[in-house]
Write a structure and sequence with these properties.
Elements lengths: L1 H10 L8 E6 L1 E6 L10 E2 L2 E2 L5 E2 L1 E6 L13 E3 H4 L9 H20 L7 H11 L17 E7 L5 E3 L6 H13 E7 L6 E5 L14 E6 L23 H16 L3 E2 L7 E6 L9 H5 L2 H12 L12 E23 H15 L14 H7 L3 E2 L4 E2 L13 H11 L5 H14 L4 H12 L19 H20 L7 H11 L1 H22 L1 H16 L12 H22 L12
Parallel strand pairs: 2-8, 12-15
Antiparallel strand pairs: 1-6, 2-3, 4-5, 7-8, 8-9, 10-11, 13-14, 14-15, 16-17
Pfam families: Cas_Csd1
Organism: Amycolatopsis cynarae
Protein name: Type I-C CRISPR-associated protein Cas8c/Csd1
């Protein structure tokens, strides 16, 4: 079904050309309509990007999958093919073979029925027949794998890239069919028709679109018998006709490079999504943006008994997650479901991670990027999280994929992700609203939870771990008020990390210290002392000493952190503080 959907996607692009792909070109070779060289040297196409790095010009040119063999592309290719120049990393004898194969392809193009009346094809062939390369001085800055674009200048001075000649598409389609065919005729796995079958996939995906790939990557390729079903190689166990094979490659490249795709640095996958019918908006936008007005409207839709644009609910939503290994594309996940079902899962995603914010200016809902970010290391001195993709960030390389799967499919988060997050909170000494939100999401979808966890303070929750977290926050607040906010080492500094796994020791010591804190507070703010004492007494009544966890499980550690966050958020909301400063502990 994946291949069929990619073929359908490719067919919706009216400008798509068969057996073409986008690549960068660093050099340009200019000739006139008689095949004469027009410049004293190859012209550079390099420009600086927004980061100041040199970048070639992007062109969609004829291209096929190229592995270890010599396989020239038409009218535009590498320096070693077009110019026959080698470098320190290439063997001169192989470069000579590549160049001769490219020249032979140009001659076949010019002599073909498609190219005989094409002035561009005749001009390029005339250039090589005349030995025009002998008068072209070599540029030492050229490397063998850089791209060279051949352009023909007409009488008016206009430059026409040779690959845009009208004869290119029909000739190149026949050339690729001859190269890639080899399995005879048979039933195509994709279209279900008896057609000439491919031997190998005719196109590759640029390596920059496939995390983990070091080269341009192919979706289907069996080079050795041991890897194929029934010891078959190439496409023997996956029969695909020529037209479908080209559409699969084109569709895959298009979806992975579209605006409906995402990949974060240091992650092992890239997600691309599309719908089988045109829809007015991006169905995944709320997950990536989490704008409060959009989320609130989305959450209100089920309560009104309908979604917006009900007539589009029959459209199918498709999502493909890929990773790479050298020159191979690995399909990590494939999803196809009605668009209405996706919307329901996204509604559940936001409902399950809703969290009362610690500070007034924060949101209750969070974007996917924010969730990915907070799973990394907190840089205490810089007061920010380690950037996504940075070394030493201690961020799981599959966290993006796990979160997206949970958002789209409505599935639980892996237990390993929750364990990692709790460990990071303990190590960093930081629990903020997004991290608390992510912990709640994991608990809401955990099969170990018998009751739902509230997004805000739940006074009826008597779970010992949850109550322990609330007590810890109450003790922290008491010490802060008793000292007037002037603290060198706080209660949280001493006990927070240990309290996550062993709340009993922290609360027993905190209960003893509370007497001194209350005594000090009564001398300055008697009313505040009374309120703190009432809060602590009511909380300890919910938690007999023997019920305080001494060795907390992962579930109990998570509940402790949620209780701690809820109590702090409740206190800050009651005080009406927009942004506490030194009380924001741990931070």
């Amino acid at each position: 079904m994946l291949l069929q959907r990619l073929v359908e996607y490719a067919s919706r692009d009216p400008e798509a050309k068969p057996f073409h792909r986008s690549r960068q070109f660093q050099w340009e070779l200019r000739i006139d309509q008689q095949g004469k060289l027009l410049s004293a040297q190859v012209e550079s196409l390099l420009t600086n990007d927004i980061k100041g790095k040199p970048r070639g010009a992007d062109h969609v040119v004829p291209a096929t999958v190229r592995t270890v063999g010599v396989a020239p592309n038409l009218a535009a290719d590498d320096v070693q093919y077009v110019l026959g120049w080698s470098d320190a990393d290439t063997r001169p004898e192989r470069v000579a073979q590549c160049h001769q194969a490219f020249v032979d392809l140009i001659y076949r193009w010019a002599e073909s029925p498609e190219g005989r009346d094409d002035s561009v094809a005749q001009a390029v062939a005339a250039f090589y027949r005349s030995g025009g390369l002998t008068s072209l001085p070599r540029d030492d800055s050229c490397t063998a794998k850089q791209g060279v674009l051949i352009t023909v200048v007409d009488d008016s001075g206009g430059r026409v890239p040779a690959y845009r000649a009208p004869s290119v598409v029909p000739f190149w389609s026949g050339e690729v069919a001859q190269r890639k065919g080899g399995n005879g005729q048979g039933l195509c796995l994709v279209c279900g028709k008896i057609r000439p079958l491919l031997e190998t996939v005719p196109g590759k995906v640029p390596g920059r679109l496939v995390p983990g790939a070091s080269n341009d990557a192919a979706l289907v390729s069996i080079n050795e018998r041991v890897f194929g079903y029934d010891l078959t190689t190439q496409l023997g166990c996956s029969p695909i006709c020529i037209s479908c094979g080209e559409a699969v490659s084109a569709g895959l490249g298009h979806v992975l490079s579209s605006s409906y795709s995402t990949s974060y640095g240091g992650q092992d996958s890239r997600l691309a999504w599309w719908t089988t019918e045109d829809v007015p908006s991006n169905p995944m936008l709320p997950v990536f943006d989490a704008a409060p007005e959009d989320v609130n409207a989305l959450l209100a839709s089920p309560r009104r008994g309908r979604f917006e644009d009900d007539e589009l609910d029959e459209a199918m939503f498709c999502a493909l997650t890929v990773g790479g290994n050298v020159a191979r594309v690995m399909v990590r996940d494939w999803l196809e479901m009605p668009l209405g079902e996706l919307r329901a899962h996204i509604v559940a995603w936001f409902a399950d991670h809703q969290m009362t914010p610690l500070f007034r200016q924060e949101n209750e809902y969070h974007s996917l990027q924010r969730f990915v970010l907070v799973t990394g290391r907190w840089l205490r001195r810089e007061k920010r999280y380690a950037p996504i993709g940075a070394k030493g960030a201690d961020r799981p390389d599959n966290v993006q994929r796990d979160l997206l799967r949970a958002a789209m499919r409505g599935t639980p988060l892996p237990p390993s992700l929750l364990a990692h997050l709790v460990h990071r909170v303990q190590t960093d000494g930081r629990l903020d609203t997004p991290r608390a939100s992510l912990i709640r999401l994991a608990l809401m979808r955990s099969p170990l939870m018998k009751e739902n966890v509230m997004p805000g303070l739940d006074p009826n929750n008597t779970d010992p771990a949850y109550v322990s977290g609330r007590i810890f926050a109450a003790l922290e607040a008491l010490q802060y008020d008793a000292s007037g906010g002037k603290l060198n080492t706080t209660y949280a500094d001493r006990y927070f990390a240990g309290a996550i796994t062993n709340p009993r020791a922290a609360l027993v010591n905190g209960r003893k210290d509370a007497k001194a804190w209350l005594r000090k507070l009564r001398g300055n703010r008697r009313g505040a002392a009374v309120n703190h004492e009432k809060t602590l007494d009511s909380l300890f009544e919910l938690l007999p000493a023997e019920a305080i966890p001494a060795r907390a499980s992962l579930k109990q550690q998570s509940l402790f952190l949620l209780g701690y966050h809820h109590q702090r958020a409740h206190r800050f909301a009651a005080l009406g503080e927009a942004k506490p400063t030194t009380e924001e502990i741990p931070a």
